[in-house]
Amino acid sequence: MTSPKPDNITYHQKSRLLEISFNEGSNFKMSAEYLRVHSPSAEVQGHSLDQAVLQIGKENVKIEAIDPVGNYAVILRFSDDHDTGIYAWETLYELGKNQQTNWENYLERLRAAGHERKL
After folding, report:
1. What is the pTM of this model?
2. 36 Cβ contact list (under 8 Å, min separation 6)
3. Three-class DSSP category at 38
4. Distance separating alpha carbons of residues 110 and 70, to the nearest angstrom
5. Counting CB atoms within 10 angstroms of each CB, which of 6, 13, 48, 86 has the fewest?
6. Coil/strand/helix, residue 62
């Protein structure tokens, strides 16, 4: 089976949600903050699991541009000047599918590091 591909990608500026529908029928709404703190870039993920950098203070980040990368990905350009993550379709699908678990893990990592989200 091939990986799901997006049918539609829409960024809702007011709510700061990226909505993605995939050709297998799923639809995900992910916040700009969620996508920013889970960027697939080496700057965020590091080059190994123990090198990941906890992203702090991204509550108000916005997506300023969505640039296609061939037929397999997009680069999301954020208002904090982060633009080095290439979000492959599979990455976006997995981020959407595992959003609740990923978000809870992120919040726990923030707490463990002594930080709170500021809204």
Report:
1. 0.94
2. 55, 58, 61, 76, 78, 80, 82
3. coil
4. 35
5. 48
6. coil
Phi/psi at 46 (nearest 5 deg)? Answer: 75, -170
Other beta carbons within 10 Å of 119: 5
CB burial of residue 56 (10 Å; 0-12, 13-18, 19+): middle
pLDDT digits (tens, 9 = 90+) for 20-54: 999 999 999 999 999 999 999 988 988 877 788 99
For residue 17, the cross-strand partners are: 12, 31
With b for 16 or more beta-carbon neighbours within 10 A and e for fewer, the 64-90 pattern comes to: eeeeeeeeebbebbbeeebeebbbbbe
| SS3 state of residue 18 | strand
CB 28 within 8 A of CB 20: yes
CA distance 99 to 84: 21
The distance from CA 70 to its chain's CA centroid, rounded to whole angstroms, is: 19
